[in-house]
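User:
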Amino acid sequence: DFAVELSERFVGIDAVQALSTFATDGLVPDLVVLLVVSPDEAGTRLAAAGKPDRLEAAGAEFHARVADAYLMLAAHDPDRWVVVDGSGGIEAVEARVVEAVDARLPSAAGA
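Assistant: Predicted structure:
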């Protein structure tokens, strides 16, 4: 995915976007919601999930680089991305996501 390619292979954002455009035949989402949590909360959630997969077990430095890459993508295309606080319980996060989506895509409200 975008962030892993950006963080692990150190390719430019334009190259990653060109590859994505090719791979999806130009299909792009109307909105991307990026949920952000602290490294401590992410670690707690990963530990609670059980046995980690290869990416989940990659370590804190890897996850920090990927998180930074996602934030860079969001900053590079603020009309398409919205960053939402993903901390707290499911209901609180859901409410923040619904609010963000409704604000950015009013036609989706109540859908």
